[in-house]
Amino acid sequence: MKGNEESLPDPSPKMADRRPLLKKSKTNISGDSRFPGPLFPTVRRTTTDPPSRQLPSDLRVSVGSDSSPTLGIINSSGGSTSSSSSSSFSDRDWLYPSFLGPHTVRNRITVKPAPSSSKSQKLGKATAGGVQRKVAAVVDEKPPIADLPPVVERKKRNDKEVVSSQDLVTRSHSVSPGRTRGVKRSLVVYTLIFTCMFSVSYAIYLWKEVSRLEGENTNLRRLCSSKGVLGNENIRVLRHEEGSSLSDFDDPQSRVVALYTVVITLLMPFVLYKYLDYLPQIKSLLKRKVNNKEEVSLKKRIAYMVDVCFSVYPYAKLLALLFATIFLIGFGGLALYAVSDGSFAEALWLSWTFIADSGNHADRVGTGPRIVSVSISSGGMLIFAMMLGLVSDAISEKVDSLRKGKSEVIEKNHILILGWSDKLGSLLKQLAIANNSVGGGVVVVLAERDKEEMEMDIAKLEFDFMGTCVICRSGSPLILADLKKVSVSKARAIIVLASDENADQSDARALRVVLSLTGVKDGLKGHVVVEMSDLDNEPLVKLVGGELIETVVAHDVIGRLMIQCALQPGLAQIWEDILGFENAEFYIKRWPQLDGMHFRDVLISFPDAIPCGVKVAADDGKIIMNPDDNYLLREGDEVLVIAEDDDTYAPGPLPEVHRVFFPKISDPPKFPEKILFCGWRRDLDDMITVLEAFLAPGSELWMFNEVEEKDREKKLTDGGLDISGLQNIKLVHRVGNAVIRRHLESLPLETFDSILILADESLEDSIVHSDSRCLATLLLIRDIQSKRLPDKDKKSTSLRLSGFSHSSWIREMQQASDKSIIISEILDSRTRYLVSVSRISDYVLSNELVSMALAMVAEDKQINRVLEELFAEEGNEMYIKPAEFYLFDQEEICFYDIMVRGRQRNEIVIGYRLASAEQAIINPSRKSEPRKWSLDDVFVVISFGE
């Protein structure tokens, strides 16, 4: 053993401070239940180090389950002895399982030898029993923590370590380094607190001494004054300076107190920042309570409170800046007073001047005043920089709010538009024209878009708004706060536009907007016009909104207009004139001077308007279109007219008319027609129902689209159409793609009376793709029709248009347009103008007509009843009738005479189109002037449908 001890290298001086290195080991589990406790098997660790690394005789103490230490001596050969024969060690030592945690390992007491020490040599030669008794005595003594010697005593650098038997024993409850550091920090905290308290107490003591001396000085002066001693030049008494307002701060001792106060005030923030987290621990120690719960540090809680304060209260930053300014003035004045000779009031004023103007400190003299003045000026610059930042942020936030459309609109009697769609441009145009007569108005647009983008898109319209102001705001119509921001309760009309989503999603969103409008606390002053996409969803919106809601089903309006325009060529242009505000439109107004007159006299009493109906006051405001001639106007009744504007007409004296009898010519019988639908619309079942009412028996409706025939019947049946109940129409199904020429050539395109190119349902979400498809279908159909014309028509066309060879294909398509009518549904107004100029289509219907209808209903919600009746398949409708129904060829009469003759047919003549003109004239201006008419002329009338 001695040789082994001498062969080992000297241990490093730092070995006692290091944790013992863990050896690689393997764990064996045997059936030997020597491990204390019946639940765990025996766990052994077998040393895998090479033999040369084996340590000499070592002394180890293990703690068993009964908390009593067991001493074992491990010799150089790996053998061990134990104080108990029943728990003797073999060549392996016991280890606890890893899942018991690191605390089980710390309970082991390990004794390492010191080869260079004489005591350790003697200990190595001692018997096992003697060592056991010695160590057991040491363990049983359980000295207190304060009496424990250090683990290792170091001697000189070149000497070897000497470890005594008492120094080798470490207990599990010894003081850890972390706790030692905590005790040291606590001592530092207590020292600082004691220093601060002593300084403050000393400052208070000095202040009291100064006050006492000043009192004695005052009493002494009073006593000397009473005895006349002050007149003696040899006796001098301390006097206060007359100009000082604060006499307590004018002596050297007060300046010392001020200096201490400044120094302590400067040091306190750093001390508090560093030791702020120890305040709860000190508080718990003073209360003698042990708080083992993990709590958030005091710094984090204070930072959180400051963050919440600045976030919740908008003026917290300004108040903090104000307090910082006041503190800097007071603290800087106190510092100046401590280092200068002036009074405290003068020091406060100088502090303010240094803060307000950083250049005022240039004339300071002395090191102390200059350092203090520079510090105050630096703080002043920082404060003013923060102030400028706050002001700049406030201005930027306000400008940004204005730019993003977050500010409130303070308007009344304005028109509010909720939402954004492709119809907005034409809608704003119509509203501007309507407001032109009153010098303009205000239109507010609220949409979920950026304000700058909306204004840029409106500016691209390049339209003169004629005094109408368009205000854009960014927000959601579903939020009451955003609705209040645009003065929704003071608007005279609210228009809810359909979104660009599919029909069901758009109508669902419109329903939510209506619910939001009904929740406005102040109520609504005006009515609400809602654009719907599907006719089936209209009753639900009306149920929710009540009487304030007026609905305009855009899809249904376009579909019905397409059918009327297909059956009556030229009617589309008339509808465009009536729906828009540029020409004549509908107005309802009361004229008391007409009370007691019959409608036949009211009809010719307006030189600048044409009466079309009466709003009956006795029948809850019901509008009667085309009433009987003998209807007598009563008090409260209003007259429905077609006029240029609401202030351009008034009743006048009755003109002289020739009420002559004109033979009534019956309408020609209806003939079966052949109509083609290209594409599939969502409301195709409603269009078929309207055609069933208009067409004669034996008519055919060809449907050409990509929907399978069985799916078509299912969709039509689900829409409410009784296919087996159709009496006038026969449905013919063809499946194909309308943009493939081969599919179109399989159809007899030259045999159809009317062709309707519909915007396909599959592309209704994309206006560009839908218009491109309709335009391609229109060009292909016209080209196929032109190729199938008779040879004589081709020759005549080529001879007549020989000078236009570069555009001969357009001329051929225009020639084909004389053979059949094609009505195209183009959604974008820009594409519509391109197609209309080429004249290869009879008419193009677009969303602009829907915008016109929305604008009319927004100006007067009663007009919606008129439009609903004129668009319906039953009741009064608009027709184009030939001139032979009202006059003879080359007869010279005035327009009033034609109106009187129309009343014999129970019709109201509202306009005409001459044979030599391309546009119809609605509400002609000079109605009493006679003119010569031709049988080729046509008249526009409102008549009850047959």
Automatic annotation (TrEMBL):
GO process annotations (BP): monoatomic ion transmembrane transport; potassium ion transport
One family name in Pfam for this protein: Castor_Poll_mid
Subcellular location(s) of the protein: Nucleus membrane
Transmembrane segments: 187-207, 257-276, 318-339
Bilayer disposition of the protein: Multi-pass membrane protein
Polar residues bias: start-end ranges: 44-55, 64-75, 163-176
GO terms under cellular component: nuclear membrane
Ranges of residues in domain RCK N-terminal: 412-553, 672-821
Family annotation (Gene3D superfamilies): NAD(P)-binding Rossmann-like Domain
Alphabetized UniProt keyword annotations: Coiled coil, Ion channel, Ion transport, Membrane, Nucleus, Transmembrane, Transmembrane helix, Transport
Low complexity composition-biased segments: 76-89
Region described as Disordered: 1-89, 107-128, 156-176
Family listed: Belongs to the castor/pollux (TC 1.A.1.23) family.
Protein name according to UniProt: Ion channel DMI1-like isoform X1
Organism: Tripterygium wilfordii
